[in-house]
Amino acid sequence: MSKTTDEQFKNVVAHAKEYGFVFPSSEIYDGLSAVYDYGQNGAELKNNLKTYWWKAMVQMNENIVGIDSAIFMHPKIWEASGHVGGFNDPMIDNKDSKKRYRADQLIEDQISAYDKEGLTDQAEALQAAFDKALNSDNLGSLRELILAHDIKDPISGTANWTEVRQFNLMFSTQMGAMAENADLVYLRPETAQGIFVNYLNVQKSGRMKIPFGIAQIGKAFRNEVIARQFIIRMREFEQMEMQFFVRPGTEMQWYEHWKQLRLNWHLALGTDAAKYRYHDHTKLAHYANAAVDIEYDFPFGFKEVEGIHSRTDFDLSQHQKHSGKKMQYFDPELGEDGKPYGNYIPYVIETSIGLDRMFLLTLINAYEEEDLSTAEKQDSRTVLRLHPCLAPVKAAIFPLTKKDGLPEKAREIMANLKTEFNLQYEEKDAIGKRYRRQDAIGTPFCITVDHQTLEDNTVTIRHRDTMAQERVPADQLDRIIGDLVSWNNVLR
Ligand code: GAP
User: What is the DSSP string of 395-431?
Assistant: First the structure.
């Protein structure tokens, strides 16, 4: 990472705290690792991202419905899904520092270090050996690579490593008051299983016909060993997932469909397409027959934001086996042979996006330190060029002064608009300072009420991006703001 992008990222993190987007959790107790709280502007931005996703997935598609399943679920669900047995990270401990690391992460860091030093041959050789080790699922070969490349613990500086062991990422807790492990429950590590176990409830109660989808937004929990890069890897985070149930044999066509649609969803926000790329999985999970990540070019490199997975009938078949309940769908439509397709377990295409990663992407993409200097004076501003649909505050209302009835008039205008838009009223400081505060949180409009307003009911409206100002009738503000922040701008 070059110094400038490193600094820029640090500035975004500092900005997120200073302006009420993201705070470290439990900060007055020195924080809790890899856990974060969203502040007053962060909560609004997050809600707007959820709305954008929900509208695009549920409201715009007649054959997709949304649910909200519980975080606690029957522990057998996680046995059926494979999470109890296989949701692990390979861990290695340094015997001198007693610190624990993800073995795969140590190797990836070494590849980046070779790259940075211009040692391309070493980087490529280690990458090839690493891919081979991952494909073989041989934990011992990860340790061999760590030793062969003399990868040292950054704390102790030694390469005195233990064996590599698997470490399950699920959090567990007790429910009720039962003996021993009889009451063990897990905090869900993905929202998807809440959809699978409800698929027949939804299908029957909603009279859904294949192909159809079930969407859900909710918290997920993973005991990540390496907490990194701010809200990229958290222990408590939010997912927006959709499972699309299809006829077996049609899954690849739906996989391609959702792969394209999901990228379009990102690009409709106006983000530079060059910042995105697809990354096809070469090593597929045991349940998948195709998988791709949508990655974004963060200041620290391309990172996964969303996954599209063709999960076959694995999850539903597993639940049928473990619960003893039929998971089959009866398809009355006629196939090419003129006979009904009949009973089958549907195949599933999943789209799964991390809301917190999407949040960070949005913030980084919007953040700009703009130089406004002229020959006469030095000037600058920090502006969040958020898409207006996503902006936490849609407009700020300023009386020019605190007297002459201007605050009353400003509040009257605000009262007419606030059922539709999230607004902020500010009368403190000079107008220029108030503009800067709104620029910093990405407010698309600032509306100033002055003495002329009292005479002809017009106001000045100042646009965040161009800083241009115009005079408009106050009774047209709902249309002007409404047009710019309308979901039509991103959903059509
Ligand atoms: N149901 C499929 C599933 O959970 P995943 O690739 O493990 O797939 C989906 O997770 C998305 O959730 C990722 O693309 C990422 O954006 C987000 N995600 C996963 N782990 C995360 C973590 N520890 N912190 C923040 N976001 C995470």
Answer: EEEEESSSSTTHHHHHHHHHHHHTTTS-EEE--SS-H
